[in-house]
UniProtKB/TrEMBL annotation, chain A:
Keyword field contains Manganese: yes
Gene behind this protein: priS
Keyword tags: DNA replication, DNA-directed RNA polymerase, Magnesium, Manganese, Metal-binding, Nucleotidyltransferase, Primosome, Transcription, Transferase
Protein name (Swiss-Prot/TrEMBL): DNA primase small subunit PriS
This enzyme's EC code(s): 2.7.7.-
Function summary: RNA polymerase that catalyzes the synthesis of short RNA molecules used as primers for DNA polymerase during DNA replication. Catalytic subunit of DNA primase, an RNA polymerase that catalyzes the synthesis of short RNA molecules used as primers for DNA polymerase during DNA replication. The small subunit contains the primase catalytic core and has DNA synthesis activity on its own. Binding to the large subunit stabilizes and modulates the activity, increasing the rate of DNA synthesis while decreasing the length of the DNA fragments, and conferring RNA synthesis capability. The DNA polymerase activity may enable DNA primase to also catalyze primer extension after primer synthesis. May also play a role in DNA repair.
Leading EC class: transferase
Entry similarity comment: Belongs to the eukaryotic-type primase small subunit family.
GO CC annotation terms, alphabetical: DNA-directed RNA polymerase complex; primosome complex
UniProtKB/TrEMBL annotation, chain B:
Keywords, comma-separated and alphabetical: 4Fe-4S, DNA replication, Iron, Iron-sulfur, Metal-binding, Primosome
Name the UniProt record assigns to this protein: DNA primase large subunit PriL
Cofactor(s) needed by this chain: [4Fe-4S] cluster
Organism superkingdom: Archaea
GO MF, one example: metal ion binding
Subunit structure: Heterodimer of a small subunit (PriS) and a large subunit (PriL).
Signal peptide: none
Region (Disordered): 135-160
Species for this entry: Halopenitus persicus
Amino acid sequence: MDDRTREYLRGRFGDYYRDTSLSPPPGANEREWGHIPWTPGSGTTMVRHQSLLDLGNLEAFFRETAPRHAYFSAARYDDPGVSTMGKKGWRRADLVFDLDADHLPSVDPEAATYAEMLAACKDALQRLLVFLEDDFGFENLQIVFSGGRGYHVHVRDEAVLELDSEARREIVDYVRAIDLDVDGLIRTEQERGTTKRVLRTEGGWGRRVHEALVEYADDLRELDEDDALDRLRELDGIGEGRAKTILGAFRRNPDAVREGNLEAGGPGVRRLVSALCAQVTADRTAPVDEPVTTDTHRLIRVPGTLHGGSGLEVCRIPRTELDAFDPLVDAVPDRFTGRTIAITCAEETTVELNGDAVMVEAGTNTVPEYVGVFLMARGDASKAPER
Amino acid sequence: MDSLYARYPFFEAAREAVAGADVSLPALVAADAPAVERGRERVERALRSGTTASETPDAYDAKAELLSYPIARILVSLLESNAAVEKYASAEAATAADRIRADLDREDTLRSTDEVSLELSDVLREFDLDDAVRPAVPAAGGGSRDGGPGPAGPRASRSARDPEWFRIDVAPYLRLSDPDWGDRWRLVNRELRDGAVRIDRADLERCLERAVRSRVLEGLPFEFAADDGIGSDLEAHVADLRRLLDERATVGGFDVVVPELFPPCMRNLIDKAEREAALSPPESLALMAFLTAIGMSPDEIVAFCADTSLDAEGIRYQTEYLRDEAGAQYPPPTCETLSAYGICHNEDDHWQVAGDPLAYYEARLADAEDVVDWRDRNDVAEAT
């Protein structure tokens, strides 16, 4: 990045912060703060181990420093400004989840457009929220667009703040279905001397598989006999005999399936449950980035600040506005929408932002400022002199 | 009340009773009161046998029993060994868990007035879990649904046939369980919904055991000022316990499994289990401690006991407790202790050879020639 571009961005980030009131996180004075300044050269040196006291007035700090990137710790400490982790005195930490397009199995970062990546990430976020809200029953959630390639969720329910790293790993493994014991989804119950195999329907992955099974059984009952048997035989390990047993049981006693009772379905039911389980886990897991959640000393972007690699706002998204949220529109800072600027691009490109697709040619262009800031922050353009 | 505190001296109210009573621990120590001897026994039994229950419970009144707990905490702190502190806390927790189970299982009608009255709701309240744990009441027609709020443990709903289910909030569940306890303890394999995990009574009791362990560990080890008089008054006891610690640390170390050379008491226990007879808790503890101490892994012990009345889950549960993080083991009880439980009968006058099963086995191994490890025999059998 050349000096002109860097000075321009730093100046405009400063202007942004002059207009913006940051609302600090709870316990801001117990957190470690860090930032990456607009320094010349390619190096990105983070200034960290700072307390709020070191920064002084938060808003004045942002106005004057206008950092390229800004972070605070998920953790709260006795003494956040001390330079070694061991001496900070860890007290508690928000439970943080990070969904990043780079980690989504469904996204090829080489081929997908920025908009496609963010859409896939938002789908994953919705799946994550189902776990956090329905399974875990968390109530104090803050959803944040990272300004880059994904989303963060900060959970601040009192009960989770003191969980250690191992407990947080259990939560990650739960939402990613890691080490899920498929056979264990079926439990054997003793009833008057006879055993009965039942699905664990009272929550967790068992409940999800059970929902899929009920739906599958309903679908089968809609089909005629031959189609239903064919559909069952598509599954690994299910031949004609087992298919007939399963279908017979589903037709004879639909309530048994609804109650999770698998006994009448014969040995093929286990295969059916495994197949449905594979499908359910593939469709419903949320591929969160594990180390972010398990590292209880992690630094995370400050909501309300600008992302130095995109010029987009790291924005909090109220839960009720999530469905309608479009990062490529809603995260464009108002400060950068009022005027055009001159930039120089090496290659032609198209930028989809703020509801428009803007064509940029190789050479010098005059573009809406937010497009120019976006390309310059990404390193795809440099500032051209205004005529 | 005293008898409840004597049984559960780590309860907050017991601590307050000690603080409020007109006794000074240094004075007790200086006078070598019965509580001091019992405190020493608590630590010794914890290190030797994984329990803190007295071998001679009638020798101590409730007050001595209660006061022996803070004395034991001082003693174990003076040992200056983290392994000893951990072992001690685990032993207090295991003993408490046995007592909680016994006190809760006892039918109300059979209780005499001088016996301790304890409800599950008391234990939950003690650990601030009364809001976090709720009974899950089975619904009519299969499946189950949540019960209403309120303290857990309505005895009326318990029947011998139905397992009793609870729902525990997920954060305390994670705090009081350990994914290393086995696959079914992993959160991913649990029925989690609306912030709570469904667990049965046995699992809840295991979580409570962990809660006791954490409570006992709080504040341990104490720091003593160099000139603290209590340390010098307890010097003789500490020296005994430290010797025990050293001695125990050097036992074992052999890693060869030759069932033919096992001491008679262990052979008896294996024979009994092979006849499909249930072993009593001290019997199975003695056997598991022995098998663990000679270097067998939980998997190997499960395989070794495949044709016995011992179930795999129970074996894993017990052996996990017997292994400590440093890789050392709880030593099995001595022959003398075993004889108190009716397990060792000094067969062939073997106390002349050695006073504990490990030393006896070690001596027989040293005398034997051409031994083939049972595990190697097993491998051969599987390969053919």
